[in-house]
């Protein structure tokens, strides 16, 4: 049996850290600190949200409603408010620009090239999410005039450096597809092994051997037989599966 991993003891909560920070602000030395001593860039969040539709991997984009890059397609996102956490900002911007909420978001990477935004020096923290296409009809919001699902292989010219962000997100998705049940975020509650294999093939952009795929996915014990079947064309009924405790796989 493997030994349990150890972690530092007494890790503080953010409430405790905030209390200590406020105490530091009240010290006399704080009066001599000049916040303008260092350059203060702006911070934004951008969200790459994937889904699978019609055997194609697609990403949600918004058409920008103002300068810069008016009318260009971009990832949903925007500026982080002063008293707002990054995760909170990502969820707020996603909802404000697309009407989408209650999706799992994972932090992807930080992009900070000095020439990525014409407004000022902007550092963005990118996120990515995986969702099913069922009942997902995004609507444009505050800074977006249109929203739409685009194939990751047939994209329009994107604003800012969003093509680089999208590429990094696709790389992460492909890296993780075998390491965890990320596919569960793209699948309906019940599915056949043929449907699951199709989703993997769409993500990896290559065909997979049917026998090897089924052996590999079943050996990982992340899915279970529901005991139900589904007719696939004229073939005999196919078994329906579901992910085990899909809420716990990220």
Look at the structure and give the CATH class of the largest domain. Answer: Alpha Beta
Q: Residue ranges: pLDDT <50 for 5 or more in a row?
A: none
CATH topology of the largest domain: Nucleoside Triphosphate Pyrophosphohydrolase
- SS content category: alpha+beta
Could you estimate the helical fraction of the residues in percent?
Answer: 10-25%
Tally of DSSP β-strands? 9
Helix count, DSSP H or I runs of 4 or more residues? 5
Number of domains: 2
Full CATH superfamily name of the largest domain: Nucleoside Triphosphate Pyrophosphohydrolase
Major sheet characteristics: 7 strands, mixed
Coarse shape:
globular
What's the CATH architecture of the largest domain? Alpha-Beta Complex
Structural Rg: 22 Å
Strand content: 25-35%
Mean pLDDT: 88
Cα-to-Cα separation, first versus last residue: 25 Å
SSE ordering: HEEEEHEEEHHHEE
Please provide a brief summary of the model.
This protein is of the alpha+beta class and 250 residues long. The chain has five helices and nine strands; from the N terminus they run αββββαβββαααββ.
Structure, explained:
The chain has about 250 residues and is an alpha+beta fold. It has 2 domains: about 40-175, Nucleoside Triphosphate Pyrophosphohydrolase, CATH 3.90.79; about 190-250, Arc Repressor Mutant, subunit A. The protein has 5 helices and 9 strands, in the order H-E-E-E-E-H-E-E-E-H-H-H-E-E. The strands form 2 sheets. Strands 1, 2, 3, 4, 5, 6 and 7 form a 7-stranded mixed β-sheet that branches. Strand 8 (about 225-230) and strand 9 form a beta hairpin. The longest helix is centred in the C-terminal third of the chain and has 15 residues, at about 160-175. The mean pLDDT is about 90.
